[in-house]
Amino acid sequence: MEIKENDQEVLLRVEHLCQYFKMGAGRELKAVDDVSFEVKKGEVFGLVGESGCGKTTTGRSIIKLYDITSGSVYFKDQRICAGTRSYKNAIKEAQKTYRAQLSAFKKQCEEEIAGGADKAEAEEKYRRLSEEAGMRCAETVAYNRKEKAAAVHDQKYCDRDHARRVMAAIREERDKALAACTDETERKKLAREYADKLRVAAHERIVNRIQMIFQDPIASLNPRMTVRDIIAEGLIIHGIKDKAYIDEKVYGILEKVGLVREHAGRYPHEFSGGQRQRIGIARAVIMEPDLIIADEPVSALDVSIQAQVINLLNDLRAELGITVLFIAHDLSVIKYFSDRIGVMYFGKMVELAPSDELFEHPMHPYTKSLLSAIPLPDPQYEKQRRRITYNPLAEHDYSVDLPSMRELVPGHFIYCNDAEFAKYKAERGVE
Questions:
Q1: Confidence of residue 6 (pLDDT cuts 50, 70, 90)
Q2: Which domains, ranges and CATH numbers included, belong to the chain?
Q3: In the sheet that 78-82 helps form, which strands lie side by side, from edge to edge?
Q4: Mean pLDDT for all residues in the chain
Q5: What is the DSSP letter of 388?
Q6: pLDDT at 304 over 80
Q7: 421 contacts 406 by C-beta, under 8 angstroms
Q8: Mean pLDDT score, 259-270
């Protein structure tokens, strides 16, 4: 099911994302299985769940660190990730169904002839039914082969296509600017400026508009590079060669994240955990991305440092208008920082709702279990707090009625079947 919450501008759209890893002997680990959600421009979307539920894999798949197995990821309405498994399976299923239908039609024809029916009429009926089945199979196969080819192209060439569109827009802008300029000296200056823009645009990659802050700050920083080189690396790869401009950008972003210029010449091991995370944030923000994927950026830090980093991300979000996909397992942090929250369990998205709605009206038993695990600094409350244990085998019976994502109230989606959905509606008082 494709989840669409409202008509607000959508920056990132994930549709039926599947990420499977081979485990040998024909086995697969379904790290992410049919996950769909949208991230709107300017919001913080929280992705929460226990360790191993697929949160980080989802983020890494979106930023193309993994080639996804199936599904699609759209960024600014351009598909940047596309898997082919679903199309291959559809082709195999269509061919299998066609063979089964041929066998059934042949058996029916033989039975009719044995029962005394006219042989020519029975064979003509068999031929007609076989042709119709063959046409349906051919249409399905052709459609899925076309979609598979489009998916392969988008997965492989989305960056090239994006760079071409950016360069075409710059050339159009350049031609208009030069046509409006009459001074020859000014025309040469404009021509040089646009030549530099085109050179940088040739290195443009749409995935550069998405940056990631990694969970372990020390493991994500090269110990052999200075802070300046680490932060400036993205600019250099992007084709920028002006050393003075790079230094100005690096120093400016260091001050923005709460560090000082003198830190630019140091190495990662000379900093504390909180400072390293600030360096990771600076490395992501300097590229001026539209979306930041923050993969548990505070889970390895002390509580006081966590607050500093969260406040820093909030300030950067307000100042730069950045959209954030915030991955964490700490629900108290998620509640403070996120506008909407998606809850994942065992590779599935089980509940998705605005932050206040999720905490006030949790419906899925796994969400209730997570919320019951939040400790509070109140001894009386802690004595009375009842931990809820989630056992999917006891909670759900999907042997007959399979589950899907369903909208309980506007913006609040739950992974459930018909019987569970009726129960949730009764609990929520929804008609």
A1: very low
A2: 10-76+332-428 (3.40.50.300), 217-322 (3.40.50.300)
A3: 27-40, 10-24, 70-75, 78-82
A4: 88
A5: P
A6: no
A7: yes
A8: 91
